Amino acid sequence: MGVLLLVLSMLMWSLVGTFVKISLTMVDATTVTFFRFFFGVVFIALLLLIKDRKIQLRGNLTWIWFGAAGKTANYIFENIGLHYGYSYGNMLVTPIQTVFLLFMTVFYFKEKVTPANWVAAALCIGGVLIVSWNGLPLQLMFENSGFTTLLFAGAGIGAGFHFLSQKVLLRSMDAGNMNFSVFFWASLITLMPLPWTFEWSGTVEADALLALVVLGFITGVSFYFFSIALAKVSFLVAVLVGNAAPLFMILWGRLFFNDPVTLYIMVGTAVFLAGILLLNLPVRTGVKAPLEE
């Protein structure tokens, strides 16, 4: 059961780029971001009502607002990056987030890390650069993929702040109410600019509407499946299965959008996955690579 829930979570994360791309055929990136949070809050609320018969909305903790701001930046930059780039481009978010968390561990929390951690960080950065380069002349790389890489870097840093907020908040809150509170406030944050940023294709498209709902389902439910799975399987198994998501992202991009998959993409992906795995193999110190979407 644990492995099944783990695989389901991984598959849901791998499909995010696909569903965002479909949603963007009808509405703009900011609107997609709002609905990811809105429907996520709806699904989390349903889970909490079924499980606990009550919901606790908190707004009096600083880290809730750090988490909401971080996840907002994560989704906004990710969705804009997916608008301009390939459907699997958001696979760069995790290695960038991992490197950001490592630097936070050293320079903010003043914790010691091992040489292996720095090698892992170098592999993550190297893999991202290889994917961004994709064999292009440097000038074309900066003109074409450089901008989207910066967007995904912003998404990774935002995801890093959200991850840190989770680590702090879980000391005093359960995962369900923590995520409900963070996503509720994030939905209000992303609602505010909609009167000025909202763009609509002019037609109601059933597949785009369904994609928005599914994105909210992934936002709201995948964390719950993953938390149950972690209690039933070893952490190493969770890392190995969870980090298979980029491979499926590439597969879905090729199948659904005919996105090009070059040797550079595959090599770069392998390099940053090696870095993420190195941070989590036995005798772990320092920061753990995040797994949740």
From TrEMBL:
It is found in: Cell membrane. It is a multi-pass membrane protein. Keywords: Cell membrane, Membrane, Transmembrane, Transmembrane helix. Gene3D superfamilies: 1.10.3730.20. The keyword Transmembrane helix applies. InterPro entries: AA-Vitamin_Transporters (IPR050638), EamA_dom (IPR000620), EmrE-like (IPR037185). The chain crosses the membrane at residues 34-50, 62-82, 88-109, 116-133, 145-164, 176-196, 208-226, 233-255, 261-281. One of its GO terms (cellular component) is plasma membrane. Pfam families: EamA (PF00892). Residues 1-132, 150-280 form the EamA domain. It comes from the Bacteria. Belongs to the EamA transporter family. This is EamA domain-containing protein. It comes from Paenibacillus darwinianus. The lineage of its organism: Bacteria, Bacillati, Bacillota, Bacilli, Bacillales.
